[in-house]
Specification:
The protein is of the alpha/beta class. It has one domain (about 5-260): P-loop containing nucleotide triphosphate hydrolases (Rossmann fold), CATH 3.40.50. The chain has 9 helices and 12 strands. The protein has helices spanning about 50-55, 80-85, 100-105, 120-130, 145-160, 175-190, 205-210, 230, 235-240, and strands at about 10-20, 25-35, 40, 65-70, 70-75, 85-90, 165-170, 195-200, 215-220, 220-225, 245-250, 255-260. The strands form 3 sheets. The protein has a 6-stranded mixed beta sheet with strand order 6-7-8-3-9-10, sandwiched between helices. A 4-stranded antiparallel beta sheet has the order 2-1-4-5, with helices on one face. Helix 4 (about 120-130) runs antiparallel to helix 5. The radius of gyration is 19 Å and the shape is globular. The two termini are about 25 Å apart. The relative contact order is 0.16.
Length: about 270
Amino acid sequence: MSQWAQEPEVIRAQHVSVAGTQRPRLHDVSVSVHRGRVSAIIGANGSGKSTLLEVLSAEISPEAGEVTYASRPAGKISARVAAQERALLAQSTPMAFSFSVLDVVSWGRIPWQGTDRQGEDDEAIAQAMTDTRISHLVHRRISELSGGEQARVHLARVLAQRAKVLLLDEADATLDVAGQGELDAIVSRRRDAGDAIVLVSHDLSRVSMIADHVVALREGECLTQGAVDEVFTEAVLSETFDIPMQVTTTDTGKFVHRSTDPPRPPKPSG
């Protein structure tokens, strides 16, 4: 039995499918989200990574299959309760007006208004801005910020939400090297505190260092899933991305890059 099978399961997607125009966005995908685990979803553009995150977050309902939150059907949970249980950072968050940084981060506390956790608002907002190093931007307008700074603000918003499940869709895409390191530290702290994190990233080498579990998608289907050592092989990654990939194991993780040579065939067992 996997060590993660013993940890509490907070979200389960069973045989979910989502229709698309030319082919399914997802087809018959099953994933479990556990506390104290970082799960990474990898795959080429258009493979269904963002769609799977939206299904796990209950933002969209699958045409087939079922999503449950601690054994409760996600479709029967209100948007408010879902927001108390999971926080989703989408790839982009269009802003119709130029809100202040404080306004945007404060949105993360909306699910807790009128509950006994409303008293955490000030502390949660301050801590989220400290963790993302944006406290000095608190009174700035978000439209005045760089893309990387805006990404930090939206990350702070979902951190302030203080949900036990954190869903991150390419949160590292516009961050500089320092910001990526800070994001990895935040993810590690949340995992160590017992939270569940599901992330999408194209930085495979970084994923190998922070993930406990990896889901590889190809054309809307789950090619395979498992521990990093099981998924981050040249054969699996080459099939996932449809290009030859090379994997070099280091002390800190795996260095993954395109190979100019065809992937080596797996060694025969026995």
